[in-house]
Amino acid sequence: MPAAGQPSLAELVATGLVACAACLVSLGVAADDVLFASKRITPPGEYTSAIEGPAVDASGNLYVVNFQRSGTIGQLAAGASQSQLFAQLPAGSIGNGIRFDRQGRMYIADYKKHNVWVIERGETTPRVYFHSDQFNQPNDLAIAADGTLYASDPRFASPAGGRIWRITRGTDGTGRGEIMSSTRRLGVTNGLDLSPDGTTLYVSESNSRQVWAYRLDGGKLLDPRLVRGFSDFEVDGLRTDIDGRIYLARLSAGKIAIIGADGSLQREVPVSGKQPTNLTFGGPDGRTVFVTQKEDRFIEAFRVDRPGREPCLQMPGMCGDAETRSSR
C-alpha cells in the first residue's frame, strides 16, 4: 500500500497514459489512428475505368474525374461515402489530372482536346485556361506555391516518349505555356509533383518504370537524377509529403510505394484494389491519402504519419514549422 499522500501504482500508470496520449496529439498523431491501412470509402462502379486526377480543396472536398460517364468531375464531400456530380466538361473533352491553387481555382488537364481548363472558386463552369495543338495528351498536373503548373505530356505511340510543360498565369488570367527543355531524353512522362521547397520536380515514367528528379530553373529541367526504378509493374501518379517523401501509385501491383528523396524504398502500402491509378493528400490535418482505383472504379483511403505538401500550401499554418522544411 502506498504511503499516505502518495499516488498508487494504478494512478501513476493512468497519469502516464494520459501524458502519452497528449504527446501523440501534440505530434499530430491521434491515438486512434491506424496508419497505412487502406479501406474503400465509396461504392464500386461510381466512376468509369478512367477514374483519375484526385485533388482536395481547402474545405476538404475530394474531386475525381469521370464520375459515372466520361467528361465529368465528381465531388466527394468531406466525410461523405458517395460522390455526386460537380461539373461537366464541354463535349469531347475528358479530364485526367486536377489541381487547386491557393485561391481555390481548380485546374483540369483535358487529354482529348489538348486543354487545361480552370474553374473559379465557387463556380462549376469551366473555361479554357491554356490550349496548345502541340500537346500529345496533357495527363497529370503539379502546382507550385506561386500557381505555376507543370503538366506531364506523354506519347504512348511509337516512338514512345514524353515532355513536361510549364504553364504560368498571365495578367489576363489565362495560361502561358512552354515545353521545358532537358539534357536527358524523357520517357513516357506520367505522374509528377514538387519537392516541399519547390526546387525539384519528380516525374514517373510509364515505360521505364522509373522516377526521376530534376532541378528547376525557369523553363529548364536540370541535373537529371534517377530516384528509383522498379523491375515490374507500371508506375503511375505520385505526390509528395511535407518531408519530401514520394508516394507512388504502382498500377497492377496493388500498392502505393513510399520512397525517400534519396531513393530508398521506405514502405509499400497494400491497397484494396489491384490497379491504383493516382492519389492525393487531404483530410483536416492533411494526413489522409485518397487513392483512385481502376479496378471496380472506386476511391479508397488510408491515414499516414505526416501531411502532404499541397494541404500545407492551401492551409497556411496547418503544418507549422514543417512548411518551411526543404527537401533534396
Description:
The structure is a single chain. The chain is mostly beta strands and 328 residues long. It has 2 domains: 1-32; 36-324, 6 Propeller (Neuraminidase). It is 7% helix and 45% strand. The strands form 6 sheets. Strands 14-18-17-16-15 form a 5-stranded mixed sheet, with no helix packed on it. It has a 4-stranded antiparallel sheet with strand order 1-25-24-23. Strand 17 (210-217) and strand 18 form a beta hairpin. The chain is globular. The relative contact order is 0.14. Mean pLDDT is 90; it is low at 12-31 and 323-328.
Multimerization status: single chain
Give the spatial strand order of the biggest sheet. Answer: 14-18-17-16-15
The CATH class designation of the largest domain is: Mainly Beta
CATH topology-level name of the largest domain: Neuraminidase
Sheet with most strands: 5 strands, mixed
Overall number of domains: 2
Strand percentage, roughly?
A: 35-45%
Beta strands, count: 25
Instruction: Note the run of SSEs as H and E.
Output: HEEEEEEEEEEEEEEEEEEEEEEEEEH
Rg over CA atoms, rounded to whole Å, is: 21 Å
Shape annotation: globular
- Second-tier CATH architecture of the largest domain: 6 Propeller
Mean pLDDT: 90
Structural class: mainly beta
- Return residue spans where pLDDT drops below 50 for at least 5 consecutive residues: 12-31, 323-328
* Cα-to-Cα separation, first versus last residue: 57 Å
Question: Helix amount, in percent?
Answer: under 10%
CATH superfamily of the largest domain: TolB, C-terminal domain
Q: Supply the number of helical segments.
A: 2
